[in-house]
Specification:
Elements: H1 2-8, H2 13-24, H3 33-49, H4 61-84, H5 87-96, H6 98-112, H7 117-124, H8 128-138, H9 143-172, H10 176-198
Amino acid sequence: MLEIVGSLTGSPWIYAVVALSVLFDVFVPVLPSGVIVIMSATAAAAAGTGAGQVPHAVPDIMMLTLCAATASVLGDMVAFRLAWRGGERLDRAIARSRRLTSAQERLGTALARGGGILVVIARFAPAGRSIVSLGAGAAHRRLREFLPWSVLAGVAWAGYSVALGYFGGQWLGATWLATGVSLLALFAAGAGAAFLVRRPAAG
């Protein structure tokens, strides 16, 4: 898959690949959406620093960020709506999962208090986006409570991932070293987010 991404980084099709990977990783968290975004941003850095650079190089850094953020929010909304309408079968599945049940309870409390920053933090944690989106929908949280935090989470994650790839490419060159260092930073953020999400709520 990564070889395909590498071959598409100079084509407008890269936006479709980024959008689809980010959209669907809410259902399949093992999809390497973060890797794809970082590789694309690294390619953007290379396009912008090469000799005789093209004025409208592909991928464009702002378009890449917008594409990833929009797909993130759309994926959250699809998961939210499906969980909302999931019925008894989904409710039983969530009840059997300690992680989903705990996340659902914490998210409900956080949103009720206007502290949906948990949604933003969970976006960086492995599978955190899935747990939060499904949990919010299954708990029948109001869309106006969840949507603004989903938008903030999508923009924060997309901006962070693109910045890692772009500045890594600027400083280290468009090499596997730059991609590797950027991915380490992304995984470090994910580990920190997972710790915060799992930490028992105070009080």
